């Protein structure tokens, strides 16, 4: 297994892409910490799945919008699991609606979760990482192309991860820590149910005509976390069934 002896932290690991990623990293041999915001039961179920692979799991309640909580989660994971090699900045929300209706609170909270939380978690993580470290953020294909109205805030918050990834790759390249961003397109989760409102429109703009499964996004993250991806850094990887093609 490619991640034997490694320790990972996945933010927002209680559901969807984060949960699939946490379990996939464990199947590759990593011990895994995961954060959640409210869904404690779901987080514990993911931890049980991780333990069923034979790896250690740690569940931490930490709001990614709260600087002390998100950095505290990183330090707790490193302390309790003994090291930290892989950080997956996955926690996310999907604000949408008319541009004029976006409140200051919604603007601040979205940027806090997607941008500030990612920045601070990564800053805390690199204090623990050694050569071979991996920082992988979960963006969105909407960072590069926005095919529908009503998602300006979401798109802007995810586009920020492109600049963050490139900058941090330059900062950490000399330490052999890689930094990449994965841009999912429509993926079947609570955030974007494949039979929800707007699902058919999303399928219609894709080339494959279908949603991705969370496990498919998790496989890409696992590859970037693995030993064969050591010279991949500062890059963005889109898995959107060709929606942006
Ligand atoms: P889900 O809504 O299924 O899961 C979101 C996860 O993030 C949950 O574990 C949730 O925790 C956690 N979370 C939300 N807010 C916070 C917070 N403030 N602090 C800590 N954790 C938080 O979403 P997805 O799995 O679909 O999304 C995962 C990532 O993928 C997000 O960044 C999203 O933007 C991105 N994405 C998703 C796409 C899709 O089509 N599904 C497409 C493109 C990108 P809890 O369970 O406790 O609420």
TrEMBL record:
The keyword Nucleotidyltransferase does not apply. SMART domains: PKS_KR. It comes from the Bacteria. It holds the Pfam family adh_short_C2. GO terms for molecular function: oxidoreductase activity. Residues 6-191 form the Ketoreductase domain. InterPro entries: KR_dom, NAD(P)-bd_dom_sf, Sc_DH/Rdtase_CS, SDR_fam. Keywords: Oxidoreductase. Residues 185-204 are annotated as: Disordered. The keyword Transcription does not apply. Belongs to the short-chain dehydrogenases/reductases (SDR) family. PANTHER family: OXIDOREDUCTASE, SHORT-CHAIN DEHYDROGENASE/REDUCTASE FAMILY (AFU_ORTHOLOGUE AFUA_5G02870), SHORT-CHAIN DEHYDROGENASE_REDUCTASE FAMILY PROTEIN. This is 3-oxoacyl-ACP reductase FabG. It comes from Streptomyces boncukensis.
């Amino acid at each position: 297994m490619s991640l034997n002896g490694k320790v990972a932290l996945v933010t927002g690991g209680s559901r969807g892409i984060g949960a699939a990623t946490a379990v996939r990293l464990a199947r590759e041999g990593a011990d895994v910490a995961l954060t959640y915001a409210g869904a404690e039961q779901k987080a514990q179920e993911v931890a049980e799945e991780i333990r069923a692979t034979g790896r250690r799991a740690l569940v931490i309640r930490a709001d990614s919008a709260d600087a002390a909580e998100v950095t505290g989660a990183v330090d707790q994971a490193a302390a309790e699991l003994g090291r930290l090699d892989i950080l997956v900045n996955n926690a996310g929300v999907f604000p949408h609606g008319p541009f004029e209706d976006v409140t200051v609170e919604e603007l601040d909270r979205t940027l806090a979760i997607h941008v500030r939380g990612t920045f601070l978690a990564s800053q805390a993580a690199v204090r623990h990482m050694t050569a071979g470290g991996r920082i992988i953020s979960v963006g969105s294909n909407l960072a590069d192309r926005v095919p529908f109205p009503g998602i300006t805030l979401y798109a802007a918050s995810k586009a920020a991860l492109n600049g963050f990834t490139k900058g941090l790759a330059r900062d950490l390249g000399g330490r052999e820590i890689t930094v990449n961003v994965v841009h999912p397109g429509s993926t079947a989760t609570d955030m974007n149910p494949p039979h929800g409102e707007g699902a058919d429109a999303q399928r219609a703009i894709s080339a494959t005509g279908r949603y991705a499964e969370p496990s498919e996004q998790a496989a890409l993250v696992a590859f970037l976390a693995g030993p064969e991806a050591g010279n991949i850094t500062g890059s963005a990887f889109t898995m959107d069934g060709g929606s942006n093609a």
